[in-house]
Write a structure and sequence with these properties.
3-stranded antiparallel beta sheet, about 400 residues, disordered C terminus, Rossmann fold, 11 strands, single chain, 8-stranded mixed beta sheet, 13 helices, alpha/beta
Length: about 400
């Protein structure tokens, strides 16, 4: 398989160059825009970079040229090749050879895995390039939003099958169809439902450091206390950050909500019993690195102490999708019931949210888009999120 990077002044020109160089069966893997030239950021020209691939079998076979060999002089002996080795390798050539072979095998395995991924992507998207240009451009838009290759191809293929040839000429109809498919994929929002009777609903907010768990918890507390007028309490097991404890206590004092700090699972259970009269208990946790097994086990000890907890994984929309998957995998060993995404106002693209719903099959509950308490939190609206993913559509589909 051949992979090429084409730079041009516009997307149509880049696509034409791709097809000229790689053939009509070439598959576009990625596009991006960038500025070139200019003076101190001014008068720069906008360029388009397209990464494309094509199978070797469809490329023209280059003509072989007759090799030219240098004239060998009579009696001339070849120069001895020299190889610099370390003293350790001189004494133990077998060990050096084994190390070299192991490194080569590792590199070959990495290349094999990379080529396998690229070939799968090519096969998954080959059909897209056979669709009308309008569909291909919508596919590029989804990829630019960092929607997974396979998922983007699946969405576009569904639209191609659902619409007639005449309808496929209507850009707004294609957009509407894709938005509806994305809404269906996202599903219905699943917000917190406080218990009006019996024992309180207990909500755990967990996730990596820096995603805004404490601020999100304060927003939820303000909503349920000030707007829905529910009886609630706040508990924090984040004993690592004094600032987080003080921040939560300040919020609690302003809203008239009790705040407790606990250090052990037994103390957590006692605090919950103390607030049996409440309808909702929100529990803040310390940010955990999904790579730190000791910290993850500490959180697991708290959550496993009571199976009635409802666990919300809080993720930043600015996090790379592959990192989201690793975080989810680590926290799912504890148990994840629902997802909350923060910092949508800071994210350049949000296709990763759609990828996570598709991959985890976990419902989305809330999104946050700012620091203001309690305003900048919303129950997920599938239609709004679909519109955010599909718009604003750039020049590639105009």
């Amino acid at each position: 398989m051949k992979v090429r990077r084409i730079v041009a002044k516009s997307l149509p020109e880049a696509i034409m160059n791709v097809k000229t160089e790689l053939g009509k069966d070439a598959v576009i893997l990625h596009t991006r825009k960038f500025k070139k030239g200019g003076f101190m950021g001014l008068f720069a020209q906008e360029m388009v970079e397209v990464t494309a691939a094509a199978d070797d079998s469809v490329l023209p076979i280059p003509r072989k040229e007759t090799p030219v060999y240098p004239h060998k002089r009579t009696g001339e002996k070849p120069e001895d090749a020299t190889l610099t080795t370390s003293p350790e390798e001189d004494h133990n050539p077998g060990k050096a050879k084994l190390k070299e072979l192991t490194q080569v095998q590792h590199e070959l395995q990495e290349m094999k895995q990379m080529m396998g991924r690229m070939l799968r992507e090519v096969e998954q998207t080959r059909e897209v390039t056979n669709y009308p240009l309008q569909l291909e451009r919508f596919f590029l838009h989804l990829r630019n939003q960092e929607v997974e290759e396979q998922l983007a191809a699946q969405l576009v293929k569904t639209v191609a099958n659902d619409l007639s040839n005449e309808e496929l000429q209507n850009q707004q109809l294609i957009r509407k169809s894709l938005e509806e498919l994305i809404q269906q994929l996202i599903g219905v929002a699943s917000p917190i439902q406080p218990n009006a009777e019996e024992s309180p609903k207990i909500i755990f907010l967990m996730g990596p450091t820096g995603v805004g768990k404490t601020t999100t918890l304060a927003k939820l507390a303000a909503h349920f206390s000030l707007i829905e007028r529910k009886r609630l309490a706040l508990i924090t097991i984040d004993t690592y950050r004094i600032a987080a404890i003080e921040q939560l206590k300040t919020y609690g004092k302003i809203m008239g909500i009790p705040v407790e700090v606990v250090f052990t699972p037994e103390a957590l259970q006692e605090s919950i019993r103390h607030h049996e009269d409440k309808e909702l208990i929100l529990v803040d946790t310390a940010g955990r690195s999904h790579r730190n097994q000791v910290h993850m086990q500490e959180l697991r000890d708290f959550i496993n102490y009571n199976q009635a907890f409802e666990n919300y994984l809080v993720l930043s929309a600015c996090t790379r999708y592959q990192d989201m998957l690793k975080i989810y995998k680590s926290f799912s060993s504890i148990s994840v019931h629902k997802l909350i995404f923060t910092k949508l106002d800071e994210a350049e693209v949000i296709g990763a949210l759609l990828n996570m719903v598709h991959h985890t099959r976990k419902p989305l509950s809330y999104i946050t888009n700012g620091q203001n308490v309690p305003d900048d939190i919303k129950i997920l609206n599938p239609q709004s999120l679909a519109q955010m993913i599909m718009g604003e559509i750039g020049e590639e589909i105009r």
